[in-house]
């Protein structure tokens, strides 16, 4: 209880607290306190802090002043203590900044207390003024009251003032302890007030913090909603892209079908032309027969005319004899008749003139007939000569005797025609004789006219026939001329081939044809490997399959690959059938609860056909159901979509499908009120396991039609819904299996044929590689080789070694350690076998017996000391034929975050798939582990099924398996959603997601007890699997670095702990070996890091079997094939094809990034166009700045060089194939390139590469002028152009050399670089064998560590 409260309870008056009624009573306390506070803060004068206590009060005013000063001093002290208390409270809350502020304020308060004494006088004066002011204010407020009231209040104010003065006087005389107690109580009250204020302030701050937390939660909720909307948008875009890709694929398939139809039409037209040519020849024979008939008829007509003339002559003589007997009247009559006859004979003359013209036409026809016959004879003889040319290698030249015979025959025909002309002339002479006796010709006039009329009719008919025959003959002549030209061209080509064969008669002959299935080594070629005819038997002795043996081996391997894939397909189909049947049976119970699952709901939706599981269905939806108003549709409302699921939304995640308005709807659904409907449509591919289709409809404004919360449901029928006797699960699976097999029959047959082709191609590639090794061994080009190359089990083999140039060059004695079957301790193992001098100088050799169970011979060389030659730790090997038992095999597991074609971003995915296939084709067991992304291309996965589920930490992991291009793939699918984010990279947490994947893979291997011999990880993403504690020491590890730009810390640790490491080319290995992440290898493991060139898939990149090319070709026909591809490319890019063969196409297919040398690509474009070449670019730029630069470049170049440049800024698979085939020079000016695939693909298609000499580009492209020696060291021929610098003048110089060689057509044809590049082998055959050697060596190391 405070002093004030206690005094009030006791009825005592506090000092200075007496109040009177009125305005002064109400406001005195507040105004006094305000005046005291104002005085204590504003006064700056100082005075004495105390006054003499002995001096009596002079007046009431002085007493009041002293009281006021004491009160003010005590209030100031109370304030100071309150501030100290507040400072202490804040200090306990740990706010250092406020503590400093409090100390400053405390210092200021101390200063204020010191100056308080100087303010006393001013405080008293100020207090008096305040009292006066309060009185004045009270008077002003009561102005409107009556005068008596104002007077009363004024008197009361005076009385109150007197009482106040008296109370102040009494208070002054009272004990000072009273004031101290009051001040102490006020101090406590002030402290409490301050504490309450601070607590209120803290509470307010806590409320603010809570409000901020709520606001943050709201913002987080908005962010999550925005993220979900973004993911939905991304998914929608991906679906659109997928749909566009499907449409593009369909369009490409249609184009291929159209091309095949055109090809068939062309073949039909060729057959028709051949038939027309034969018909023409028959027509010519008919024409000749008709000419013979006409000739006979003319001769008969001439004979008849002679007879008539003779009769006329006789009659004229008779008339002359009777002339003397005729009277003069008769003479006049005869004269008149003769005049008439004269007119008629003039008419006859005209007819005879026409007949003469007809004879000349006949003569010309005979000449044409003669020419036609001679041409036919010449063509026939040329054919005979061409056939002879192929047999006896002679020129297709017609014999001179035959030509002279033709001349004689033509001369005889001319004589016959001359005879006919003489006959016609004699006829004309007889007609002239007839003119002298026309006066006696009256008796035979009528008959002569009749005969003349008949002759004219026959002549007209003959003229028509002659015109028709001339037309037909002219057409036949033109066709025969074209045929003659074609035969001449064919003869020229055959002559060239014959000459080429003559030149190669004594030269080496290629091994196997790249475009034929024949394997005869004496007549075919394969990737530029050449042998002599007499070497074929030697190759057989060396164990190299040739001829019929190679054909049989190829067929056997192809059959086994066919059967293996067939089994995989059957297994995948059965898995799919089981999954579908089980899903349907599971869904049947849940489907029963949908009592509204109908194919159609009146005025809401309808199906255009009966929905079938596994088929496509189109659903119509009435927009007015969602937007009932008939007002105009806005732009946003035009966007409608459906969220679709199956089996009560349980089968898979809901998908978003856009609705499209139906225009010109001619067949609206029945049983609907069409005036109330505005139909939109969307199409669905119904999954095979779907029993019910679930959907709701919405628009971009957030409106949804979900059937009042029940959603819409459509029952999906099954093709096997008919009543069957056996409906057990096994029977259902069997029916579903056959149904799926029938649907996929065509696709499966194509895959089987492709698998057979790939296996056969691999066998022939390996045979070619063996042939190359054998030939090089025969010629002494290798330091290490065996004789035979592939010995038979149970027979002897000689191991030869040339120490010069190797680690044992200066060794005095050399020994060989021999083992078998890649093991360490084979029973027939031999150590330190002495090498003796061989027949050839500098070559050491030893001969051993091969055990019957040996599938491979392993050997290495050493001296008496510490030096060894063991092929950099991998040992040397030779395969053995006919061994007993099972050949040793490896178990390899690849861990990667990419795999083509299901999840590919860059070249990593291609390498994983191609390397796995190549190693598996050599008999080893290969598994691939990848994350189960939601954005994968699931259509390329066969037999995908769930095989396991286990707990990993706080998460659950689902394990799926399937086959991709014949390789078994295990998919890791954690339920935490790491790989359900719509993308592979770019989330910002890639290191977390992929580290989780690596550990999960090893955890599953441990759970399933399926650890491989070698665990092969790719790049930094899967490197953590190497140091996983769950990996046993018996499992070796391999690391392949595809690009050192990223994850360098993880790569550094993996380099230390892995068994061996590789990168994608030898030169790139040299370029990065001093990198801090690489040079951590201990000195005793210096051979741990290798560079192995990547390869390309020759079955995919094959111009002899490429569906995207207008004409397929191989290295022998590359000129014709590339010409057609070049022309088609120009048409596709809408470029000018005028004189296109004389202008090269400079092309580039790449991602437009700084790594790829974008500034060098721009320079190549400008320089090529300036020099008169074409330029074609296919590529996309992820950087908007680079994309804009190239868009501007395209516009500039098209305006400066119209018709000679083409740009396509998006990846197009068919177009890329066409560019590789149509390009003459292919640019790859990368600033750095670990390996690079485009330059090898370009060479495969006959395009000459022009590259910057870095990484894998240096290992694959050898300059025609600068690298002959380096190419020979690689066992290759020069195949292109390269440069070293990074400046524009560097690529300009290289391109100048390339274009100069091209424009020098004779030099370009002589170099024949397109054919050279196509014959070189850039497949995975040799690299995969190198990897297998390293796998075996790593396995041995791991076993030794155990």
From TrEMBL:
Record-given protein name: starch synthase
Classification lineage: Eukaryota, Viridiplantae, Chlorophyta, Mamiellophyceae, Mamiellales
Compositionally biased region (Low complexity): 40-53
Acidic residues bias spans: 98-108
InterPro entries: CBM25, Glyco_trans_1, GS/SS, Ig-like_fold, Starch_synth_cat_dom
Broad EC category: transferase
EC assignment: 2.4.1.21
Annotated coiled-coil segments of the chain: 459-494
One family name in Pfam for this protein: Glyco_transf_5
Catalytic activity, reaction form: [(1->4)-alpha-D-glucosyl](n) + ADP-alpha-D-glucose = [(1->4)-alpha-D-glucosyl](n+1) + ADP + H(+)
Biased composition (Basic and acidic residues): 1-16, 62-72, 178-190
Residue span of region Disordered: 1-121, 133-190
GO MF annotation: an example: starch binding
Pathway the protein acts in: Glycan biosynthesis; starch biosynthesis
Keywords, ordered alphabetically: Coiled coil, Glycosyltransferase, Starch biosynthesis, Transferase
Keyword Ribonucleoprotein applies: no
């Amino acid at each position: 209880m405070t002093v004030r409260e206690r005094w009030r309870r006791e009825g005592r008056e506090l000092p200075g607290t007496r109040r009177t009624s009125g305005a002064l009573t109400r406001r005195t306390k507040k105004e006094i306190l305000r005046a005291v506070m104002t005085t204590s803060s504003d006064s700056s004068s100082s005075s004495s802090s105390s006054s003499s206590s002995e001096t009596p009060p002079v007046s009431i005013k002085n007493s009041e002043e002293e009281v006021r000063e004491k009160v003010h001093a005590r209030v100031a002290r109370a304030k100071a203590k309150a501030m100290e208390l507040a400072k202490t409270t804040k200090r306990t809350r740990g706010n250092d900044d406020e503590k400093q502020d409090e100390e400053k304020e405390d210092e200021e308060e101390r200063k204020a207390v010191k100056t308080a004494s100087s303010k006393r006088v001013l405080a008293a004066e100020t207090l008096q003024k305040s009292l006066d002011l309060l009185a004045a204010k009270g008077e002003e407020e009561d102005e409107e009251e009556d005068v008596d009231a104002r007077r009363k209040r004024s008197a009361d104010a005076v009385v109150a003032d007197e009482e106040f003065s008296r109370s102040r006087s009494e208070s002054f005389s009272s004990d000072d302890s009273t004031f101290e107690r009051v001040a102490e109580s006020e101090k406590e009250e002030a402290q409490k007030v301050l504490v309450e204020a601070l607590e209120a302030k803290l509470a307010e701050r806590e409320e603010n913090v809570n409000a901020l937390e709520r606001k943050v939660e709201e913002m987080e909720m908005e962010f999550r909603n925005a993220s979900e909307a973004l993911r939905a948008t991304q998914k929608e875009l991906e679906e659109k892209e997928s749909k566009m890709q499907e449409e593009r694929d369909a369009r490409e398939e249609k184009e291929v079908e159209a091309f095949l139809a055109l090809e068939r039409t062309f073949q039909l037209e060729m057959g028709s032309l051949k038939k027309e040519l034969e018909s023409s020849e028959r027509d010519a024979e008919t024409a000749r027969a008709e000419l013979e008939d006409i000739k006979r008829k003319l001769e008969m007509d001439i004979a008849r005319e002679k007879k008539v003339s003779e009769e006329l002559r006789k009659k004229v003589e008779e008339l002359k004899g009777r002339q003397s007997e005729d009277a003069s009247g008769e003479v006049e009559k005869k004269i008149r008749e003769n005049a008439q006859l004269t007119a008629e004979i003039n008419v006859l003359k005209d007819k005879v003139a026409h007949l003469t013209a007809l004879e000349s036409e006949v003569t010309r026809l005979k000449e044409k007939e003669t020419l036609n016959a001679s041409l036919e004879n010449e063509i026939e003889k040329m054919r005979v000569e061409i056939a002879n040319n192929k047999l006896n290698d002679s020129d297709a030249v017609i014999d001179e005797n035959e030509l002279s015979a033709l001349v004689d025959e033509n001369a005889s025909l001319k004589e016959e025609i001359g005879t006919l002309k003489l006959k016609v002339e004699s006829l004309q002479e007889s007609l002239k004789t007839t003119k002298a006796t026309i006066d006696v010709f009256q008796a035979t006039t009528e008959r002569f006219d009749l005969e003349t009329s008949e002759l004219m009719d026959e002549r007209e008919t003959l003229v028509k026939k002659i015109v028709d025959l001339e037309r037909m003959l002219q057409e036949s002549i033109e066709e025969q001329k074209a045929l003659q030209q074609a035969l001449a061209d064919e003869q020229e080509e055959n002559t060239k081939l014959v000459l080429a064969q003559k030149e190669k008669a004594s030269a080496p002959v290629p091994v196997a044809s790249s475009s034929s299935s024949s394997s005869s080594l004496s007549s075919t070629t394969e990737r530029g490997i050449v042998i002599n005819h007499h070497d074929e038997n030697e190759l057989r002795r060396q164990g190299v399959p040739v001829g019929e043996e190679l054909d049989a081996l190829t067929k056997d391997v192809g059959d086994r690959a066919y059967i293996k894939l067939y089994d995989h397909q059957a297994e995948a189909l059965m898995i799919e059938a089981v999954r579908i049947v089980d899903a349907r049976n599971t869904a049947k119970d849940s489907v029963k609860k949908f009592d509204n699952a109908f194919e159609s709901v009146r005025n809401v939706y309808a199906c255009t056909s009966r929905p079938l599981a596994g088929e496509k269905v189109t659903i119509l939806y009435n927009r007015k159901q969602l937007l009932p108003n008939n007002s105009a549709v806005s732009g946003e409302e035009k966007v409608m979509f459906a969220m679709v699921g199956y089996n009560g939304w349980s089968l898979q995640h809901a998908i978003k499908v856009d609705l499209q308005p139906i225009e010109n709807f001619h067949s609206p659904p029945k049983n609907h009120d069409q005036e109330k409907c505005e139909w939109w449509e969307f199409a669905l591919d119904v999954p095979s396991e779907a029993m019910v289709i679930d959907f709701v409809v919405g628009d971009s404004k957030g409106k949804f039609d979900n059937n009042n919360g029940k959603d819409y449901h459509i029952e999906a029928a099954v093709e096997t819904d008919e009543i069957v006797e056996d409906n057990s699960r096994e029977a259902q699976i069997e029916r579903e299996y056959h149904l799926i097999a029938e649907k996929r029959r065509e696709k499966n047959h194509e895959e089987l044929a492709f698998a057979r082709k790939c296996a056969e191609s691999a066998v022939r590639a390996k045979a070619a590689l063996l042939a190359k090794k054998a030939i090089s061994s025969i010629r002494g080009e290798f330091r290490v080789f065996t004789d035979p190359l592939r010995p038979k089990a149970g027979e002897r083999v000689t191991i030869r070694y040339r120490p010069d140039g190797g680690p044992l060059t200066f060794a005095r004695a050399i020994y060989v350690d021999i083992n078998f079957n890649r093991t360490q301790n084979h029973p027939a193992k031999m150590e330190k076998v002495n090498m003796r001098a061989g027949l050839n100088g500098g070559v050491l050799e030893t001969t051993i017996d091969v055990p019957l169970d040996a599938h491979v011979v392993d050997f290495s060389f050493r001296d008496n000391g510490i030096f060894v030659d063991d092929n950099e730790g991998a040992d040397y090997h030779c395969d053995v034929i006919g061994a007993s038992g099972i050949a040793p095999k490896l178990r390899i597991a690849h861990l990667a975050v990419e795999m083509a074609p299901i999840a590919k971003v860059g070249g990593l995915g291609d390498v994983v798939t191609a390397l796995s296939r190549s190693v598996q084709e050599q008999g080893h067991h290969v598994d691939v582990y990848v994350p189960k992304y939601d954005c994968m291309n699931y259509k390329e996965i066969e037999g995908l099924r769930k095989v396991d589920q286990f707990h990993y930490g706080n998460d659950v992991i689902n394990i799926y398996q399937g086959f991709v291009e014949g390789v078994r793939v295990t998919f890791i699918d954690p339920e935490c959603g790491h790989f359900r984010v719509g993308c592979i990279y770019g989330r910002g947490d890639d290191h977390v997601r992929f580290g989780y994947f690596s550990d999960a893979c090893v955890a599953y291997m441990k759970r399933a007890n399926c650890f491989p011999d070698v665990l092969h990880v790719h790049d930094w993403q899967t490197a953590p699997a190497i140091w996983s504690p769950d990996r046993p020491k018996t499992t070796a590890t391999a690391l392949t670095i595809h690009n050192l730009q990223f994850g360098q810390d993880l790569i550094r640790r993996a380099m230390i702990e892995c068994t061996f490491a590789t990168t994608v080319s030898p030169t790139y290995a040299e370029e990065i070996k001093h990198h801090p992440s690489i040079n951590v290898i201990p000195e005793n493991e210096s051979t741990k890091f290798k560079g192995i060139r990547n390869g390309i898939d020759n079955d995919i990149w094959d111009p002899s079997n490429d569906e995207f090319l207008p004409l397929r070709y191989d290295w022998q026909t590359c000129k014709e094939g590339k010409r057609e591809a070049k022309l088609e490319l120009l048409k596709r890019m809408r470029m000018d094809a005028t004189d296109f063969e004389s202008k090269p196409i400079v092309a580039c297919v790449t991602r437009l990034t700084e790594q790829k040398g974008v500034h060098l690509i721009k320079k190549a474009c400008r320089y090529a166009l300036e020099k008169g070449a074409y330029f074609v670019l296919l590529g996309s730029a992820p950087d908007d700045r680079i994309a804009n630069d190239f868009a501007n470049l395209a516009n500039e170049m098209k305006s400066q060089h119209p018709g000679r440049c083409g740009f396509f800024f998006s990846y197009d698979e068919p177009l890329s194939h066409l560019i590789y085939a149509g390009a003459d020079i292919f640019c790859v000016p990368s600033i750095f390139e670990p390996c690079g695939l485009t330059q090898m693909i370009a060479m495969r298609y006959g395009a000459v590469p022009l590259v910057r000499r870095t990484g894998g580009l240096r290992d694959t492209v050898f300059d025609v002028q600068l690298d002959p020696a380096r190419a020979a060291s690689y066992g290759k021929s020069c195949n292109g152009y390269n440069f070293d610098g990074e400046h524009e003048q560097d690529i300009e110089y290289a391109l100048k050399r390339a274009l100069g060689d091209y424009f020098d057509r004779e030099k370009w044809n002589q170099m024949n670089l397109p054919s050279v590049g196509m014959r070189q082998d850039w497949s995975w055959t040799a690299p995969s064998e190198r990897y297998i050697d390293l796998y075996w060596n790593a396995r041995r190391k791991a076993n030794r560590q155990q």
